[in-house]
What does this fold into?
Amino acid sequence: MFETTQQENEILIRLQQGDSKALAEIYRLYNPRLYGRILQLVKSVPQTEEILQDVFIKVWEYRASIDTEKSFVAFLFKIAENKVYDFFRKVTRNKKLEAGFIALATIDYVALQEFTEDDEKVVLLEKVIKTLPPQRQQVFRLCKMEGMSYKEVSEFLGISLSTISDHMVKATKAILSQLEIHHKALLDLAVIVWLFS
It folds into this structure.
C-alpha cells in the first residue's frame, strides 16, 4: 500500500475543499495501480475504464468525508471493491456478458496457492472441481492448475484434442453453475485475489 505523504495530504485537503484540480492530481497518483488491479480481475479494458471512472466520481462525491489522518488508499480501494462487486452482480444478470463470467470461474488456481488450504474460498473451489467426472476433473486440473496446453494434455492422456476441448467447455460450464450457487463466496474470492495478487 502507498503511504500518504505530506504533499498528498495537501492535495486531499484541497480536494475536500472542492478543488477539481486536486481530483485530477489524485487520479494521476493512484490511477496506474488501481487500473492494473481492476484489469487483472475483470479482464476487460472498457470495463476497467468504466469502473475507474465510477471510482473517481465517488471520490469526488464523498470528498468531504475523507479523513486525512487515515489511509486514503484504504478509502479508495474500498470504493473500488464496491464497484467491482457491482460489476459482477451486473454480469450475472446480463447473459451477454456470460462468457466473461465463465472466464472468472476458471480463475488461475496458482494465484490461490498463497492462501491456506483450509481457507473457505479455496475449499469451495476445490469442492466444486471435485464434482466433475474423474477424467474431466483430471483434464481441468492439468490445463488450469498445472498450466499444460491442450496439446500437451492430449499427448499425456492419449486422447484427442477435440475431447480435451469438450472436457474443458463442459468443466467450465459446470464450475460456473456451481459457483453461481455460491455467488457471494465467489465475489469474496475474486476480491481477495485482486487485493493481494
In short: DSSP finds ten helices and no strands in the chain.
